[in-house]
Each structure stands twice: as structure tokens, then as C-alpha cells.
Specification:
By secondary structure, this protein is α/β, with parallel strands linked by helices. 41% of the residues lie in helices and 13% in strands.
Length: 357
């Protein structure tokens, strides 16, 4: 089959939300109620989310970045403090730290998992370190045990890992706080939206106070970071489907791994807690030609991180992040992929591996 024939079969995008009649019905009910701002549906989503993961307290926000900003403020992070974050991550973390006036300190990642390297983090801790933000990247839990031993508050970034596990417990239940993102192409979506969770009522009480500025008896800087009932209705519907969403992702990942095992490629770790938000393949060369060749065959692929933060800030010192960015390829893996589309993706990757020899 030539490239034009491949394209005529329909382009398979890199990411796509998992939406259906359940979400349409949920939205219809909220709109019919006439109450679309933050209200009872948001409170129900918060409680349902906390119950699902066995977390004591949850506060919904209008984005994952807002959730992270408020979590940092609730830990009293501010000017003069330092917050350690990975370089190999989206710039939302950098923004959230800068919002507080603190100084972001970039750490490198482990070459096998792309998650924070605890040894590099340890080397960057000093008296000004106020927190470490730990993303569970691409759906696989970071190695939390050595990070927890550092005696610095951890904020778990579960934006790509809703439902992932670590040591038979859900991610998001280990740090001082954890944040989630429900952007359109995340594991579950509310269109835009986020959540902060914590076992500390003191932390979540502060966050709940700061996310809304109106009708307060005292004045301090607060924000308009509320979620709407429309968003929460989507979230409740998506949460009800989360088990099936994760099951489908893992099934697709198993098919990919079986098909690619004989290739000279770095495949995602086969970890029991992995939910495969991204299926990231490590190449021994730049991923750019692969992305271009796969696009010509109607398969949307990408680097899983647009640019590492050390590149954006024109800094040095994160060689594993640099290598991960240059050599990594993310292929489509989402529940609405059909079996025919999965076969097309597998065939295209096999063909590209042959062409790139």
C-alpha cells in the first residue's frame, strides 16, 4: 500500500479524548438544571474522586496548573525558596513555581523511566529547597521511596497518571499533596480542569479558600480557579469509566510490546502500575525522521515532551533529559483506537524501523 492509499484510510491522530453518549447525557442534565457554575456537581466530583482513590480530601480547580500553583502556596512556597522539578516535563511546572516567586531548580531524569532521578535530586537539595514536584510521567509511577527519604515535601504530579499505582497504592497518596489535570487529551477529561488532593485538611482548606476570591471577610490575594458544574459532570462520567479506560490502554500496550520486542528499540517498562498514558519508544537516533515517515503513512506521532525546560531556559546540565527529548517517539495509544487502527500503527512502526536501518 503506498502513502496516498494510507492517507485515504484516514489520519490517526496522536491524541484523542474518550467521549460518548454518557458524557452527552451528563452535560445535558447540568444544562437543563440551569445551574452551570461551581455547585453541587463539583462537590460530588470532589468526593467521588477522593473516594475512588482512598484519599481524604480533594479540591477541584479549573486546570492542573492552577492546582499546582495552589498546592505550592499551601506549602508556603514563596520568594527565597527553591523548588526542584524535572527538566523533561511540560512548562506548566515551571510556570507554577514562577507564579509563587520561588526559584525553579531543574533536575535530570532516569534514562529507563524518564521520571525524576532521585540521586540527581539529592545533589540539588540545599537549605532553600522547599519542595520537590514529582511527575509520574507517561502513566508510570516515579520511584518515590528514595525521594520520600530526602525529608523535603513532595508534590506528586499525577497529570498523566490518573489510576497508576506504586507499591500497590495509587499514586497521589504518598506526597504532602498531589495534583491532577483533566485537559482534553489526559487520561480522563473535563475539557479543562484539575484537582488537588491531600491527607492534610489544613492544606486543602487553604486551597479551597484561595481558589475563589469573592465574598471573603478578610483580604488576601486569592484567585478565580474554580471548576464549573459543566466540567464536573464530564469528570463524574469519565471517572465512572476509568477502569475500562485503563484496561483498554493496557491491552493496546501489550499488543505494541508483543509486536515490537524483536526490534532494536527501547520499549516502556512493563510495570504492574503503569497505565500507559503514552506509549513512548526510545530510539538510538533523532525521532524527527520517524515522526515525518509515520505521518506520511497516516499515523500521528510526536515527541512526548515539546521541549525540555533546560532548552527553553538555555541552560546546560541535564544530559538524560536532552537524550530523552531527542530520541523518544510517542505513538497513539488511547481507548477509542479501533483494532484496525492499532494494526495500522503496528505495521507502520515495523515498516519505519525497516526503512530507518
Amino acid at each position: 500500500m503506498n502513502n496516498s492509499q494510507e492517507q485515504n484510510r484516514g489520519f490517526i491522530p496522536h491524541s484523542r479524548p474518550t467521549l460518548g453518549l454518557e458524557e452527552i447525557q451528563a452535560l445535558s442534565e447540568v444544562i437543563s438544571s440551569g445551574y452551570v457554575a461551581e455547585g453541587d456537581v463539583v462537590r460530588k466530583f470532589e468526593q467521588s474522586f477522593a473516594d475512588y482513590f482512598g484519599i481524604q480530601h480533594a479540591v477541584a480547580t479549573n486546570s492542573g496548573t492552577s492546582a499546582l500553583h495552589l498546592a505550592l502556596l499551601a506549602l508556603d512556597v514563596g520568594s527565597g525558596d527553591e523548588v526542584i522539578i524535572p527538566s523533561y516535563v511540560c512548562c506548566a511546572l515551571l510556570n507554577a513555581v514562577n507564579y509563587t516567586g520561588a526559584t525553579p531548580v531543574l533536575a535530570d531524569v532516569h534514562p529507563d523511566t524518564f521520571n525524576l532521578d532521585a540521586t540527581d535530586v539529592k545533589n540539588r537539595i540545599n537549605a532553600r529547597t522547599r519542595a520537590v514536584i514529582v511527575p509520574h510521567l507517561f502513566g508510570m509511577a516515579a520511584d518515590l521511596d528514595p525521594l520520600l527519604e530526602l525529608d523535603v515535601p513532595l508534590i506528586e504530579d499525577c497529570a498523566q497518571a490518573v489510576g497508576a499505582g506504586y507499591n500497590q497504592r495509587p499514586v497521589g497518596t504518598y506526597g504532602a499533596a498531589a495534583i491532577y489535570s483533566f485537559y482534553a487529551t489526559k487520561v480522563i477529561t473535563t475539557g479543562e480542569g484539575g484537582m488537588v488532593v491531600s491527607s492534610s485538611k489544613h492544606i486543602t482548606d487553604q486551597i479551597r479558600d484561595m481558589k475563589s476570591y469573592d465574598q471573603k471577610e478578610d483580604y488576601r490575594i486569592r484567585f478565580n480557579y474554580k471548576m464549573t458544574d459543566i466540567q464536573a459532570a464530564l469528570g463524574l462520567s469519565q471517572l465512572g469509566r476509568l477502569d475500562n479506560i485503563i484496561r483498554r490502554r493496557r491491552t493496546i500496550a501489550e499488543k505494541y510490546t508483543r509486536s515490537f520486542k524483536k526490534l532494536d528499540l527501547g520499549l516502556p517498562p512493563e510495570d504492574a502500575g503503569h497505565i500507559y498514558f503514552r506509549y513512548v519508544i526510545g530510539l538510538n537516533r533523532s525521532s524527527a525522521p520517524w515522526i515525518q515517515h509515520l505521518a506520511s503513512k497516516g499515523i500521528g506521532c510526536d515527541r512526548p515532551i515539546f521541549l525540555p525546560l533546560h532548552q527553553q531556559l538555555q541552560r546546560q546540565g541535564c544530559p538524560e533529559s536532552e537524550k530523552a527529548w531527542n530520541n523518544s517517539l510517542s505513538i497513539p495509544i488511547y481507548p477509542s483506537l479501533t483494532d484496525d487502527e492499532i494494526t495500522r500503527i503496528i505495521d507502520a512502526v515495523l515498516d519505519t524501523a525497516f526503512q530507518m536501518k
